[in-house]
Structures
1.
Amino acid sequence: MCLAIPALVMSVDGLSAEVEFGEVSRQISIWLTPDVKPGEYVLLHTGYSINIIDEDEAKETLKLLEEVASGLDG
Amino acid sequence: MRFVDEYRNSELGKRLVDRIHRRSKKPVRLMEFCGGHTVTIFRHGIRQLLPSTIEMLSGPGCPICVTANADLDKAIALALLPDVIIATFGDMLKVPGSYSSLQGVRAEGGDVRIVYSALDAIRIAQRNPDKSVVMLGIGFETTAPTIAASVLEASREGVSNYCVLSMHKMCPPVIKALLDSGEVRLDGLVCPGHVSAVIGSRPYDFLPRDYGIACVVSGFEPLDVLQCVDMLVAQIERGEPAVEIAYRRGVKPEGNERALETMWTVFEYCEARWRGIGAVPESGLRLREEYRSFDAEVAFEIELPPPREPEGCLCGDILRGVKTPLDCKLFRRVCNPEHPVGPCMVSSEGSCSAYYLYGENNGNG
Ligand code: SF4
């Protein structure tokens, strides 16, 4: 029930935004992340963005995981 | 989709599993608190991939499962009142209360509507000015800020026939209550990802400090969970339990300050009743004095017969991590997702439903 999915913000109008995930687009409330900008991803939960996804951290995590895969982790 | 498929790469997964096997020496018990993690773990057969040194337990992190019958009965009773519309997330519909379910009262003519968001409930209130719309406030710290935001939005738009029955529950206090009961011993905790997106990782600091328990916040894709287990094992093997975040793309140590501010503007702590666990102080939320007019508890006074539990159902023990669904005589034979006896079978995130759907051999108990 704490399911939240990554959604791409297409446009922002005040405290609501148009987002896309998969093939779906939807109007959501960005009351909880008012600073989000188009082009950013949010974690979408019950019609609200509960956080902005940090792309740099996402890349960093993948890099770490790939290091494990290539045996660089020792 | 971005931020999803990357974390399902099976080659990376195998390497992580190999590393966990290399690293894990001591026998450890880890609990995944959150029902969402239970689903990831069962769906991807993660328990069987792990070395025999690691025992995984499912925790009480399913908001529907932990809702006490006394609270559920109240929601069901409200649904029977004329001129009341109940708005709820879909999973609640089939949960059996003491005497009926929301689905049952809907069949008897109660007006119960499934909403995707509390915002939808406000729209229903606007379209039905002569009715009261009661949004069922179910959920942990992930959901509570959205319900709080809906109250602020209703207040701003002057929607006076909207109110909330708050049955919200808070995660860190119940983790503490479980540990203090002495029934479960844990070495590590897979901390809930989306609860932590809101509260951050700091509220878990007491766990390594006071209980010596390793804590890692995890995302919900299989690689997220494996990375989290790997980090937990590393902490435990080093003998240095701490709080770390494996889900850094979604969780900051301080959480989402705006979401927390919204939640505390509308709500304050109160004691909450948890199924199987009982009353836990400061583990629930009620509406603050200033928002009384949006509080269903104030708007409606309801006398209820005492709650009762379904006979033979072990949900309470399962939620405390002391039994598994395999211990329940009703599992599969009487109780299944079509005819659930207890909430742990109704909710897709409940342990009984996970065991049912993904095979009981998946468990390592
Ligand atoms: S299998 Fe059904 S009756 Fe048994 S504990 Fe689970 S929900 Fe309750």
2.
Amino acid sequence: MEENTASANEFNLPEKEIPLEFTGKASEYFGIWIVNVLLTIITLGIYAPWAKVRNKKYLYGNTLLENSPFDFIANPVTILKGYLLALGFYVLFSVSSNFYPLSGLFFLFLFLLIFPWVVVRSMSFRLANTTYRNIRFHFERDYGESYKVFLGIGLLIPLTLGFIFPYYHYRQVKFVADKSGFGTSRFSFDTKVGNYYVIYVIVWAVFAGIGVIAAIVMGIIFAKNPDMAALMQPPAEGQEIEPEQQKTFLIFIGLLYAVFGVLYIAVFAYMQAALNNLLWNNVSIAKQRFRSTLTTPMMVWLYLTNSVCIVISFGLLIPWARIRMMRYRVKCLTVLSKGDLDGFIAGEKSKLSAAGEEIGEVFGLDIGI
Amino acid sequence: MKPISAIRYDGQSSAGQSVELTFYSDSTVGVKGEGISATYRLEEINIPSQVGGVHARLEFPDDSLCEVSDSQALHYALPDTLKKGFWGRVHRWESSLKYALFALVIAGTIIWAGIEFVLPGVAKQVAENIPLEWEKAMGEQTLASLEKVNLLSATELTQERQNELLAKFNSALEKANAVPLSRIEFRKSEALDANAIALPSGILVFTDAMVEFAEDDRELIGILGHELGHIEHRHSMRHVLQNSALALLLIMITGDVGSASTLATTMPLILAEAKFSRQFEVEADAFSIGFMQKLDLDTRYLSNILQRLGEKYGDSGSTGYFDSHPSTRDRVKSLAGG
């Protein structure tokens, strides 16, 4: 067949670089965002699934690969059912844990138990509703493997005092990537666990370093200003605190928070960049590989300025911040393709409810992919 | 009419094909390209509503798809009947800066009115219809957990002093015909220092330091009235309801749950919660005024002790947006007014 003769020559084919493009505009997105917010509020949340689909349609539709956009084709009614289920679960959880704080433990246990199922449903729904050139993505519903990774290895984390966490993260990403596919082709993720340990060891070392430096700095400041150390204690009987002294103390605490806030964002940005690059640089599908070139300084800059701008604009710059981040992320991703992108064949269609996806979202579950 | 260029994907493979779409006046659409020439009736083609300027899509009954990068050209070619309807209107609304700003003003007004009036009003109605006994487990477990983390420990007041105060409190409660409390407790607390707290289901806790701080037991009656106000007005239940609803509102606005935990979105949450808390304090103070008047007590007993507490703990004098309590000056002023 044609395919066999083609694959014999593939090794010698030069790789073509196909950059991804993002064409979304903040001004245009602002209109979509604000109308979504308004309609969601005045319908008491009923519109939320339609808002979500329009939002994704805009972001996916402005992500172009060889001039063809991606698309999100989920049925909002399916998402609405998922939302209602998740809302019921959330209300049950928050009401009972408020009246009986201990029942929170029961829910936590229940959640751990269904978590691997939720991951599979959620990925499956998301991918089955993502299309490119009229071909759907898909996710193999391998519940057994999901329980093995998320529950099996997950339970080992406390036993190993967290040292297994980078391995756990690696297996999560590998599970999600390996079970994903486009048409009849499957993605495959291939890297050494060691790369995950490198990222985590750097993060752990930075946190340990911050702790040590903070302790030293505080020690020096308190040694030189005994007054300040005294302020850390509750005032003794009859002791007066001068307002001036209190002011310097508050400024000091404020500065401390600012420094730690920036450091926290920096570490977070580094993890985002490193983990994203590690994923995309080691994943392949059919004749295609990827190259991701996110950098930590740029991510730090984007996160910092986005946070500041959102706060000082009372949230009005949320759309602008989102477009900006998306543009950078897409710009850093390139497809390295031997041959063209025409050879993907459609797989069979499947219908799936959104229950998994929305429950996952209510609990802020992010599988980092 | 001028044909519109599109790329056709047959739904079988990812290979695309350049085609031209022609819209005829008899409500049919021609798809022509190399090796393809088909005609469809307009009503069997699904055209999802346009979002922004993304490539327009035409979905055909044979599962093929045509993508039109010039969505504007397609818009002009489509018959008017297809552009009306709800989604056509939503798209035009989203695309017009003027209408978007209008949406912004309306949304802003609704959010403001919701937080200012609707949310507290509804929470109040709901809370008042929930029996106080339902909070029993909540109250007991809160007290137990406060003791567990050593925020509260056994009182060091003498049994005599406790009995004396309890007798005064009980006769005041009886005289004022107040809500039946589950109980009044005394606890020692270094962290809370001079304080009194109302826990769910009507458990009142006075700290030892508070009892010692009062120069007159009538000041403690004033404090009792204030805490009673928290219970009478179901503040702990309203706190739970309002904050849960607020979190849901925030998720609606930002569009996802994940961002509800980021710095930018927790900020307004903290501000709104502090505002609710200040409103509760005002209500509790007002309740105490009525309580003391029923007992023929001068409200100055409460304002005096608040004044001294404010001095001791360094009240800045003006109410800040992050403060959980109004400033002492404002509280004393409204006590004097009432």
